[in-house]
């Protein structure tokens, strides 16, 4: 519903061989989130300028890869949009078709982040053929309920990738806690009119990750839900009150290692 058109930005860092498969980083870039027609309460909108934190983290990471002497190719994908209200706004009950043909019934327009991540993730799988796909997003309030404000949530289908990012987070001062991709909750995504419902309402952080998993094409994948650590409630240690940029340090720490993809996809 925004008057501002959406944008899709592609950033490339050629740190490896020209024909090498890249690491792809995808960052959620909702520049302001009203909730759309499923509108947020007024007090819940006060921090929604920071719903582009995932995209900002990816952009910051891309800008510093040379400084950490990253030795692999990295592509950053930034889907940018404003979730607003207007005559063209997405409505509850609409069905949308994603890149690749998968369909989603939109039952809650405030679960928009997974919708704008899905297409670039599928695009990456189809066009870029990555060795590893990592998405970063202030995605769910549920991860904040689960983990508080000090930990980011990590979901992954690859043990080596999960271990590497968890270790990097611990060493860089941005700790992560691994959450389950619980297959028994897959049925919650069911819809009578589409392949998935975007907001099943149960186990919301996990079902958001399960929703995104359908756009990974079985590529090794890590999903970082940083809504928990995306804001600091006060000035503390290196944090200033407000958006933290959580994730940039751990990604740079990991990508600056000698072999960041060792064991991934094995």
Please describe what this structure looks like:
The chain is of the alpha/beta class. Helices cover 25% and strands 23% of the residues. It has six helices and 13 strands. The strands form three sheets. Strands 1, 2, 3, 4, 7, 8, 9 and 11 form an eight-stranded mixed beta sheet that branches. A three-stranded mixed beta sheet has the order 5-6-10, with no helix packed on it. It has a two-stranded antiparallel ribbon with strand order 12-13. Helix 1 links the parallel strand 3 (29-33) and strand 4. Helix 4 crosses helix 6. The longest helix is centred in the middle third of the chain and has 16 residues, at 113-128. The chain is globular. The chain starts with 6 loop residues before the first strand and ends in an 11-residue tail after the last helix. The relative contact order is 0.20. The mean pLDDT is 96.
| Total strand segments | 13
DSSP helical segment count: 6
From the alpha carbons, calculate the radius of gyration and give it in angstroms: 17 Å
What portion of the residues fall into strands of 2 or more residues? 15-25%
Identify the overall geometry: globular
The first-to-last residue Cα distance is 44 Å
Succession of helices and strands: EEEHEEEHEHEHEEHEEEH
How does the major sheet shape up?
Answer: 8 strands, mixed
Helix content: 25-40%
Chain-averaged pLDDT: 96
Computed structural class = alpha/beta
Q: Which ranges are low-confidence, i.e. pLDDT below 50, for 5 or more consecutive residues?
A: none
């Amino acid at each position: 519903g925004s008057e501002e058109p959406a944008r899709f930005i592609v950033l490339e860092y050629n740190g490896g061989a020209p024909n090498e498969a890249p690491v792809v980083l995808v960052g959620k870039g909702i520049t302001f989130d009203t909730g759309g027609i499923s509108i947020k309460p007024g007090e819940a909108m006060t921090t929604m300028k920071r719903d582009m934190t995932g995209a900002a983290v990816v952009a910051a990471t891309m800008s510093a890869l040379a400084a950490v002497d990253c030795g692999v190719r990295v592509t950053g994908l930034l889907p940018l949009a404003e979730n607003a209200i207007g005559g063209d706004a997405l409505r509850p009950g609409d069905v949308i078709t994603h890149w690749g043909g998968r369909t989603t019934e939109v039952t809650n327009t405030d679960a928009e982040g997974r919708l704008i991540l899905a297409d670039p993730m599928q695009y990456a799988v189809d066009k870029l053929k990555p060795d590893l796909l990592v998405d970063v997003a202030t995605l769910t309030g549920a991860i904040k309920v689960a983990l508080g404000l000090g930990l980011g949530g990590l979901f992954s289908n690859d043990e080596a990738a999960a271990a590497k990012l968890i270790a990097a987070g611990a060493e860089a001062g941005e700790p992560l806690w691994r959450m389950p991709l619980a297959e028994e909750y897959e049925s919650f995504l069911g819809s009578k009119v589409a392949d998935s419902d975007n907001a099943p309402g149960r186990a919301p952080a996990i079902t958001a990750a399960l929703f995104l998993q359908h756009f990974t094409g079985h590529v090794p994948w890590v999903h970082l839900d940083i809504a928990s650590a995306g804001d600091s409630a006060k000035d503390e240690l290196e944090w200033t009150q407000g958006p933290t940029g959580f994730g940039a340090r751990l990604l740079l720490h990991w990508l600056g290692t000698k072999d960041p993809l060792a064991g991934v996809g094995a």
